[in-house]
From TrEMBL:
Key words of the record: Toxin-antitoxin system
Single GO MF descriptor: RNA endonuclease activity
Record's keyword annotation contains Nucleus: no
Lineage summary: Bacteria, Bacillati, Cyanobacteriota, Cyanophyceae, Nostocales
Keyword Protein transport applies: no
InterPro entries per UniProt: PemK-like, Plasmid_toxin/cell-grow_inhib
Family: Belongs to the PemK/MazF family.
Protein's recorded name: Transcriptional modulator of MazE/toxin MazF
Protein species of origin: Nostoc commune NIES-4072
UniProt GO BP: mRNA catabolic process; rRNA catabolic process
Coiled coil: none
Amino acid sequence: MNLQRGDVVLCRVPMPSTGLAQFKVRPAVVISANQLNQILDDLMVVPCTSNTNRPLTVTQYLITGDEIASAGIRVESVVRCESIFTLNKS
């Protein structure tokens, strides 16, 4: 799997509200360096949510307008940079 920084992937995201015991399928943005993505089995990613009703924090980024299509998602979404996690590529 040849993923690059900035790619959006669908994955099972651990839910902090459940003590990380439950997961939801969500888009996530790859943030790990391309050199690491080529040699490691894991990626560093940050999840996205379509819940845009809450005020953004300084660690969140709203994807809107033309960015929606270029990011490969369907609706306005918030990238939650405070929720970094690793994802196995297999």
